[in-house]
Amino acid sequence: MFKPLIKVATIASIVLMVSSTTAFAADCKDKVYKLKLAHSWPTNFPIFADAIHNMAATANKMSSGCIQIKIDSKNKHKAPLGIFDMVKAGQYDMGHSGSYYWKGKVPNTLFFTSMPFGMTAVEQYAWFYHGGGMELMDKVYAPHNLVSFPGGNTGNQMGGWFQKEIKSIKDLKGLKMRIPGFAGEIMAKVGAKPTNIPPGELYTALEKGTIDALEWVGPSLDLRMGFHKIAPYYYTGWHEPGSELQFLFNRKKWQSLPENIQEILRVSMRNAAYNMYVLSYHESAVNWASMKKDYPKIEVKSFPTEVLQALKDANDELIAERAKADPLAKEIIESQAAYLKKSRAWTKISDQSYYETMEKLK
Ligand code: CA
Prior knowledge:
Elements lengths: L1 H29 L2 E7 L8 H15 L4 E6 L1 H4 L5 H6 L5 E4 L23 H10 L2 H9 L4 E8 L6 E3 L13 E3 L2 H9 L3 E3 L6 H7 L4 E2 L4 H7 L7 E3 L8 E7 H6 L2 H36 L4 E3 L3 H21 L1 H34 L2
Parallel strand pairs: 1-2, 1-3, 6-7, 6-8, 9-11
Antiparallel strand pairs: 3-10, 4-10, 5-8, 5-9
Helix pairs in contact: 2-11, 5-13, 7-12, 9-11, 12-13
């Protein structure tokens, strides 16, 4: 009795599927959305480039081939830190980079990657999607003919590789360290000499003593760079607790796209961002295990509380200056501070309590 009904229903749904696919394919025949994307990284740079290719493949499949994204790495366009300008001008429709790279150009872009002593990846994602972060990011990018979307998280970054142990704040005075972003400004405020050296030159700079220390990402990417072979101390992090990369879109181009195409792209970017976060976590876990096994002499340390407190004090002073100087900066800073307070209270009672409980058990 039921069999024919099921058959009819199945046939009906197949017919429906075929007809809707056909209708969409017909749309696609009229209009293929060819988009050009430029990113800041070398071709096939692990994890970061994976996120971009993942996004493009998902968008292509979900649109039955109607969205075609051509990807140019920095090897092609030669302007790793030119993504903002190139996408703004429409030279490229899309970009993939890091928001804090544009702080010299548009100071408030600083806040949308990761802030020292700020939110972790999951706290920040909650802020972006449910705590007003996306709206604030749009306020910053809209005047520049851009739309910015979260583009993948590295997870909590390590504090970096050091040639000497850091025992007190005095050890940071005059220390030459590669450390970009707001953390660099904090280091300068406590007397260090921050520099931003391109990734390709980092190993040699540390090996030759041009710099005394550097931070890059964490085990997910650091071991490929070989820093563990030339620096004995690996410090835990404070400065990038959850660095989010970004997909950038030329705003006029974005607005010219039909809603269904926008939605496919939105879902593809969000999915790629999440996948990158998970892949970073996986790569960190795998590389951490191999580092502990193959390089047991590396000393993993945390900065003394006195040092961290001095860095936090410098951070708070610099943040207060920014809030005072610019109403939009103030709005973003207050939004992040309020969300951190709220989300951290939950993190403490959920994740932190769980970790602490597990530590006590055999
Ligand atoms: Ca970093």
